[in-house]
Amino acid sequence: MKRYILGRILRAVLSICVVMSITIILIYTCIPRERILTKDPGLSKFTGDARTNYQYRIWRQAGYLDYLQPSDFCAVSEDPKTCAQGGADYEEIVADYVDRGYTYIEYKESDLGFVTRDYSVPELLINFFANLVNIDNPWYVQDAQNPDIERNYYITTGPNGLPAVACSGCQYKYQLYFDSNFPFIHQNAVKLEFGISYPTFDGLDTMDVINGGQGQLIMTEQTFPTGLTQSSALNQYTCQYKATSTIDHLDQNKFTDNYANCKSNYDAPSMVSTSYLFGIIALVIAYLISIPAGISMARHKDKWQDKIGIAYVNFMIAVPSLAFIYFVKWIGRFFGAPEKFPQLGFGDIRSYILPIIILALLSTSSVMIWMRRYMIDQSNSDYVKFARAKGLSEKEIFNKHILKNAIIPIVNGIPSSIILCISGSVITESVFSIPGMGKMLPDSITALNNKMVITLTFIFASLAIFALLCGDLLMTVVDPRIQLTARKGGKKKK
Amino acid sequence: MEENKKNIILSAKNVVVKFKVRDRELTAIRNVSFDFEEGKVVAIVGESGSGKSVFTKTFTGMLDINGRIESGEIWFEGNDISKYKTEKEWLTIRGKKIATVFQDPMTSLNPVRTIGYQISEVIIKHQGKSKEEAKKEAISLMERVGIYDAERRYDEYPFQYSGGMRQRIVIAIALACHPKILICDEPTTALDVTIQAQIIHLIKELSKEYGFTTIYITHDLGVVANVADVVAVMYAGQIIEYGSVEEIFYTPKHPYTWGLLSSLPQLGEKGHELFAIRGTPPSLFEEIKGDAFAPRSDYAMKIDFEEEPPFFEVSPTHFAKTWLLDPRAPKVEPPEVIHNLHEKMVAITSKGGIYGER
Q1: Does chain B have fewer CB atoms within 10 Å around its N or its C terminus?
Q2: Could you say which of A393, A481, A490 has the minimum Cβ distance to residue B111?
Q3: Do A347 and A418 fall into the same domain?
């Protein structure tokens, strides 16, 4: 079992690497770097050399090339200040860079220039994978003004009174903590980094875009380490190290240490949570409807239950989902359901009813028809004939024999359905203006937000592979014939 | 037939079974009457499609959904079970009084339920025992049918059993409620020869022990010779000859029985082609006139194509449905190859095999 799972995980990691490599190569070789700037409204504010600098900064951030201004490459000089103005060993350093394959480009409005070099494909891949996993450690902080910072882990009581693992010297103060939000245990120790979103959600880390809270700040009464109690939106568990030079007296009022760079609490959940909330509730409803419906259709094959079911399935398949969404929305109007999600917002249950009904109904038809089909397939098998000859009633045969066999292929798909709820639903979320994940991938592609596309590809690919693994592991629980390890069986030698 | 009334457990009278196949009607069983004597082993033989299985399925109400008993009566324990319509009525008999063992043990058991569950389920259902009692009885049944280490194997799944062991389990399930009649629908066809003999012996032993009547459906005449007391030969939905096993093997009267016996592969000589009955059985969609076997028979007379023969009595236990037995018919001898069949078979199989072990 362990060996099997390990093997599967290794293969999963390998396939994710392959998928990511293909994605990265496609993006960086097929999208010319000039094109990503065309979507940027900020570019028109710059002219001349400032514009050139801005462009190269963006390209560097987007991962196309390496780019160094005089102030950057002169850092190695014995006299950085003179060097940055073109003096001292400026020429030698530039020549050194040119030797290493960089191009020296002179500014038009001054005598200085900058060096730049496009990344090759292997470098692009190395850059991605080398920076992907970021493990926080007590030697993370390198602050010249705070050289004596302690570097250790310790257990403490968090701001909400629950125990937490904290760290001094790490980027994040709280490495592991508990709170009342799903999944109740949280960590800051390992982070995935994909880069900075651009041009949409400019300047934000891509993971923060999909993971961060949305809506208005919520102010709560909080007590800070200094003992100060005030109404604040800060989430103290997210505090990061702040360099001593940037600590102001406001920070000092609240915090006793340098961990003062905190994120805020918002009243609306993140895009991922939003999509997930809708998806999971809809999924549960969909299975609650479609599995009994499919069973009933199979049991009463060719009777009215089956005919109604087939009519429903045909209707659901034939009607385009967009038409169905607007149809349900139109019916919803008579019951006072809101047209758009933001009208009543996250706090009101009425906002959820229509989208969840639609999402649930849209996925019922396929589960129903498969369930019916598996049940009917099974009911023609020999063991059912024998069960009948044993004198079991039809009801017993269905409940005790057919159902367990028929549900196995359905069970295999359940983890995928659950996990892939994260990706949200494009059409339903658009129609109801739900701030979820559904439109993120298509939007990022049209906006040429390369980093975001890479982030989403990574997340969806990993989740899909993980979901398949979960599905297969679940099969071993429901189907005794499937075993991941050779179990001792057969006749015992006497 | 009239003399055998003493201990009749199940009696079929003039049974006609029809199937609706798309918009046509097929007559699978054409006016069959037969009495099953208590405690005897009856073998029904015939080629594929002759209606062997369909005939016995009418005893448990397990005809396919498009089939029905058109007319006739089936008397069992004072009830005409051919009139049973509802599942509730059938459940008083099926499994409880008349059990069936099917051909393929590999697929007869539910693959995702334990062996133990599948046996004790029947005991709980028909004998109303508690789970623990049922388990105890199931384990003793498993031991009785020859499963070693039954206690441990109780919780195993069918895929952990071999074909022969699965058939043993199927038999154990069939016996779980002490049926009066056990129908074995080609119980050994899917098993290899060594296991066949074991299973046949097992059924034979158990029938003595439990005192049930066995109905074998088979086209393996070796099995028939080995186990049967009475043999009924079926052709095109009718029983055309029946009698004790000795009578059928030594003094067969119907040309079809002759053909069937001549086709025994054991009788083939090296270098010669095996004997086969020429032609194919008649279509059951059309009404059959005269003797159904006539078109394929070397002994057919004019009357065979015109009028259906009645049963002629050969001995008080042996009847055959052929005009050849009419006093007016010319005297014909059965084919040379099946003369002294018993001696030949014993000679051939003296080195081994299941024939001749009787």
Answers
A1: C
A2: A481
A3: yes
